Amino acid sequence: MQCSDFRELADSYLSDELLIETNHDLIRHLESCAGCRHELAARRELRSKLRKGFRQAAELQMPDEFAGHLRNELRNVMLLPSRSSFRTTVGRRAAYIAIAASLVVAAALGYRAIQQRSNVQPNIFTEAARETKSSTGGSDSSNSTGRALVSASLTENAIGDHRDCAINHRLKERPIALEEAGRIHDRAYVNLVQAVMLDGQLPGGATLVEAHSCIFNGQRFAHVILKYHDQLVSVLATAVGGEQTSELKTLGASKEELVSSAGSDTYRLAHFETARHAVFVISSLSEADNMAIARAIAPSVSKHVARAEVA
Amino acid sequence: MFRTDREDTRFADWAAFEGEALPYQADLYRMAKWLLRDRDRAEDLVQETFVQALSSFHRYEKGTNCRAWLIKIMYHVLGKRRRSESRLHLVSDTEERIAETTAFVASTPQNITEQEVLEALKRLPLQFQEVVILSDVEDMTYKEIAEALLIPTGTVMSRLHRGRRLLRAELSAYANARGIGQEGGKSNAV
After folding, report:
1. pTM of the model
2. Does ipTM top 0.90?
């Protein structure tokens, strides 16, 4: 065997694809040819580097958040019979932007409506307004800018809680009973289920699945899970603000009810607020159905939570 | 408390898919990112691949190479996308001829890094990159590669042979230009 023959067959030899007789010919040649021994070692090393380089290349590693998203979306497609669509990455990002934009618009419109109704009663401070206030040393709340309670991060937490608690059952921390959470954390949670259920008068005969208090990403929620048209619907109530709480306690009355809605291909979200709580309704229902539930429970739940706030 | 009997069945199907196919997420993403060079497009391709795999998981033969099955689906999705985007990726005759006529290749250089190997691979025509990766990285058989790429097995073999040779030629040129060691033997053709 000549060196040129060997080098023609060397890759097949490394892949163990040659006949036994040909293998023997190559081995005999290797015994007497240092150059081809070296070439064979170099090709073996090249394959090893190719394999290792490709598998470990930083730019080819799958982002963790994509892995989590993919698993969740596939699971939802599989486990939720009405889910037939699947958001693309571009669609997913657009959906988040749409939700955030909807909330900003809803907050702005809500604030404007409230301002028009009352020039006397101060509204809730924004983070930006509080920063301005502290930087100027001022304390006059009438100079501050009002806002809706719901921030984009709070919305994401609510959606995350619906997804990981109601849908996927994989919260890091075990939920506790709603009444227990009411005693320990937030009295608005006590008897919240009754306020949500409207004495069985929920639209379309929605039924109660479970109620508890759970934590997602550090945010505690009262979580009432309903079933409506074979879909799980989360009603999530959560206290908002730490510093605002003491200031707003003097305000007493609940804020004007305002139900806003936003959505994506995966979840529909509606929310309304009281002085110190935000309440979300999240599901994979149509926007109209999700909104119908939010509108139906908003008066009762707002009243219940507002009472707890002033108690 | 949440689950009905019907949901339990779906959970069992999901568990099978999760155990068999999902572990290859990272492998498919790597391949998709290599082929498309764009994170968003790679993620979309992997998503669509897994959605299709999920819907046709009943056709997957347990015990066979699940990664190869998923890569085959991915290539079908990719082919459909390329056609719909009117960006047909036709194998260039010129590229094939260049590969065919690359007669002289120096000895395989050593003392090169993994990154340099990948950079050299990127400079090859895509049809050669694909078969080299599918064979030498993903350990797919000729038959599995042929089914994924929708080409005859003989074409897989010839492209692989040429692809490896082109890669060595690229590395050899790179090493010569930078004076990186060509320690071993004489420069023979092949």
Report:
1. 0.53
2. no
